[in-house]
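User: Modeling request: complex.
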Amino acid sequence: MQYNVIVIGSGPGGYVAAIRAAQLGFKTAIVEKYDTLGGTCLNVGCIPSKALLDSSEHFINAKEHFAEHGIDIPAPKVNIGQMIKRKSDVVKSNVDGIAFLMKKNKIDVHTGVGSFVDKNTIKVTGKDGKETTITTDKVIIATGSKPTPLPFAAFDKKRIISSTEALELKEVPKHLIVIGGGVIGMELGSVYARIGAKVTVVEFLDSLIPTMDGTMGKELSRVAKKLGMDIFLGHKVTAVENTGNEVVVKAEPKNGGNALELKGDYCLVSIGRRPYTDGLGLDKIGIETVKGQIPVDDHLKTKVDNVYAIGDVVRGAMLAHKAEEEGVYVAEQMAGQKPHVNYLLIPGVVYTWPEVASVGYTEEQLKQSGRAYKTGSFPYKALGRARASMDTDGLVKVLADKQTDEILGIHIIGARAADMIAAGVTAMEFRASAEDVARMSHAHPTYMEAVKEACLAATANRPIHI
Ligand code: FAD
Ligand code: NAI
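Assistant: Request completed. Predicted assembly structure:
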């Protein structure tokens, strides 16, 4: 079979690239080694984690907040089997949706491991070992990433687990030890903390979610402790051992002090993900990875003509929507268009409750670059909307250029931050000043009023409601 475009990998990068290529008139195929499409995000990432986050939020609301709302129910109980089943149903409906989209766009799906024979020929090896060869003008590599193990403790998938197993547990852990207080650690840690597990997070750096603005990490730490999570920052894990019925984690404070020894029934290792290129046969086309990543230029081209790479397997944030933008970019570029991805404005979201969402520069980045800036903040507790829903934790922080007032970053921790950040992206994409946003009418009562107020604070320190 001869194609114009073959996409290897069907995650958000790959399937979106395939759809856009097909829309632009290319005869397109997608190769996926698993039986279901959608990659990490739909099968073992974004979607199942959000399904469990939602379930755990319903549980804690029923357990701790319904009574205050005047809703009396018997003490709720967790049915973990049903929670996991619902999550799997949600995954199924999403991955089936991608299969439908492939059909709708007349994209051929080849199931099996795709590997280069040469730059125009891909061998697809099915689970049964059957090999099919397909040829193409252009290839888009979108093979994604896998969890990074600790160098001294491999995932045994029983007690020392990655996010993939943490989405499939058959019981609520008694004590879940989380190594890495980044996005996965805090999202999945909070799921199990809400449904009854004791959760301890051990983080190497001095802040949770350390790539985000420091204020967010501090506030998230406060909220996580309120939820009952134990947090150890600045700790270097030295040993993790599955002793049969339990897992023992040892860590040392980086700046000296007493060593830590924790015993739990599960240890979630969430210290980042690494690009995945196993079995791809990159050597057949002369591509060498650098720190695991496929090197690409500013146009996502590899060093081999007509071979592109996108998503988690290349540099940049490992996010579904970043992969999607790159998928569209490459397809449109192949069609002779002049697309653009604004990497500064790829938002980052942590789906804890309250959520954390961020776009643009952090205060730490601005300090480091020496750019003169000003800040404005507004706490959720001063919002009528937040009081009505009792979601008073959190704040909005706006960073703006000191001279021009252009918004340089928006950082939100609070209810519905994930959805609100889109307004920040829009404002920054149109290069709004803090005063522009401060002068726009925001519906009352909404959480978005905190963004307006933070912009008022940044403009001339004149918030109204605080
Ligand atoms: P992937 O989604 O990893 O897809 C790659 C695909 O390629 C896989 O299906 C793989 O099987 C296939 N493949 C690999 N090699 C071959 C081969 N040789 N032949 C055939 N097929 C192959 N991001 C967000 O933006 N929001 C979130 O809320 C979010 N939540 C997450 C939660 C968790 C628990 C995890 C683990 C990740 C989360 N992410 C989230 C990150 C997100 O999942 C990734 O950034 C995204 O999936 C990357 O997309 P991709 O297309 O580059 O690769
Ligand atoms: P991460 O990079 O977000 O966090 C890893 C954390 O582990 C960091 O805080 C790091 O300092 C810490 N760490 C590293 N080595 C350590 C060690 N030896 N001991 C203790 N701590 C250590 O990575 P995570 O959480 O594994 O997620 C992987 C990727 O998946 C992220 O890059 C993220 O972009 C993506 N993801 C996105 C989500 C979202 O958008 N909501 C949700 C989940 C994952």
